[in-house]
Amino acid sequence: MSCAPSYDGEQFRSFGILYSKPIKKWLEIEAGVEYSKYDIVQRSKFMPGRESISQKMDLSLVSIPLDVRINFLKYLFFNSAITVDLDAKTPDRIDPQEGIGYVLGLGAKYDFEFGSSLFIGYFYNRHSWVSFNSDDEYRLVASRDGFKIGFMHRL
Fold first, then answer.
1. What share of the chain is helix, strand, coil (3-state, %, to 5)?
2. Which of 15, 29, 50, 142 is the most core-located residue (most Cβ within 10 A)?
3. Integer Cα distance of 8 and 38 in angstroms
4. What does the pLDDT look like over 28-42, one tens digit per residue?
5. Can you give the residue ranges of every domain in the chain?
6. Sign of the Cα pseudo-torsion (143, 137, 78, 85, in order)
7. What is the pLDDT of residues 51-109, one digit of tens each?
8. Could you tell me if 45 and 6 are in contact, meaning their C-beta atoms sit under 8 angstroms apart?
């Protein structure tokens, strides 16, 4: 019987700024910086006759994405990014998340005539796909998925 704790993400928040450069009508590249904060709960393994212990922790990361966005069917897009992830705050009980990660996403974008755009999309993000700190194949790696809503304006 394993006595290892479990780690569950309760919620995450993220904000950032991106620069987008159109290459062709259907292709854009993006680069920027993003700050993410994860609320994580560590729960002790259930053992009969023992009280289960939970402890809340925060994990914060700074990510630098390099993104490719492919636009299709007028309003839709697919995006894929490689990210450089840096620990801003990592509790001792969580493996370091510094490394190369990736993002995959699918969404919709509406371009206004006055030069702004509004977008919404689903994404999956995995951090530390290639770790800067560990070659342990059993390390705990943060990942998240969700919806991203944003506003863009052409300069």
1. 0, 70, 30
2. 142
3. 10
4. 999 999 998 888 776
5. 6-153
6. positive
7. 667 777 788 899 999 999 999 999 999 999 999 999 887 666 667 788 999 999 999 99
8. yes
Q: Which residue has the tokens 């005539």?
A: 113
24: Cβ–Cβ under 8 A, 6 or more apart, which residues? none
The arrangement of strands across the sheet holding 99-111 comes to 6-24, 27-43, 54-72, 76-89, 99-111, 116-131, 143-153
Gap between the Cα atoms of 12 and 124, Å rounded: 13
Under a CB-based contact definition with an 8 Å cutoff, are residues 151 and 18 in contact?
A: no
- Residue range 121-132, pLDDT digits in tens: 999 999 888 888
Q: How far apart are CA 133 and CA 126, in angstroms?
A: 16
Residue 1 is predicted with a pLDDT of 46
Strands (E), 47-142: 54-72, 76-89, 99-111, 116-131
pTM here? 0.79
* 86 close to 97: Cβ distance less than 8 angstroms: no
**One-letter amino acid for residue 66 of the chain:** L
